[in-house]
Amino acid sequence: MNSSEREYKGREKKYVTIMEELADALTYCHEKKVIHWDIKPENLLLGFKGEVKIADFGWSVHTSSLRRKTMCGTLDYLPPEMIERRTYNEKVDLWCIGVLCYELLVGYPPFESPSHNETYRRILKVDLRFPPSLPLGAQDLVSKFLRYQPLERLPLAQIMEHPWVRAHSRRVLPPSVQMAS
């Protein structure tokens, strides 16, 4: 394994840990009936020990039903149901996790295009193109989040069970959490 392959493997482990911690944070938010709506790299903070913290709840909503129709968020991260102005729920955050995972691994969002209209078109068609260098496990994880139908998206609780995540996880839970499991 050459140095660039080792570096990429190290990034995989770091990004898998981010996905796991983000899943935990969003699970908490969703249990409290909060939809974030704007998960993206700029809205994630790293704590002193590298732990992930979600920031910028400016677009978020607290609602008893978790069903909304407002269009908001960042263009490259908008899910199909928001673009089509359909009623949606917390599963918009699952779409954002898929876009985020792709962007962290590849370096740019999956539907990025020269114009807004082309980006909208690619999102609505879920026109997902993976670079050949992206490992198949990562492609599988991303494609399980980026589904046109929200109910088909990978639930947060299943992220930790995904084979690619399990193979690359280096997450160490605090003693209080380890004792509870």
From TrEMBL:
Its domain of life reads Eukaryota
**Enzyme Commission number(s):** 2.7.11.1
Where the record annotates domain Protein kinase, the positions are 1-165
Amino acids binding ATP:
42-43, 56
Q: Name one GO molecular function term.
A: protein serine/threonine kinase activity
List the GO biological process terms. cell division
Which controlled-vocabulary keywords does the entry list? ATP-binding, Cell cycle, Cell division, Kinase, Mitosis, Nucleotide-binding, Serine/threonine-protein kinase, Transferase
- Gene Ontology CC: one annotated term: spindle
User: Is-annotated flag, keyword Calcium?
Assistant: no
What top-level class of enzyme does the UniProt entry assign? transferase
Q: Offer one Pfam family short name for this entry.
A: Pkinase
InterPro entries in the record: Aur-like, Kinase-like_dom_sf, Prot_kinase_dom, Ser/Thr_kinase_AS
| Catalytic activities | L-seryl-[protein] + ATP = O-phospho-L-seryl-[protein] + ADP + H(+); L-threonyl-[protein] + ATP = O-phospho-L-threonyl-[protein] + ADP + H(+)
Q: Does the keyword Transferase apply?
A: yes
Q: What is this protein called?
A: non-specific serine/threonine protein kinase
Whose protein is this, by species?
Answer: Nyctereutes procyonoides
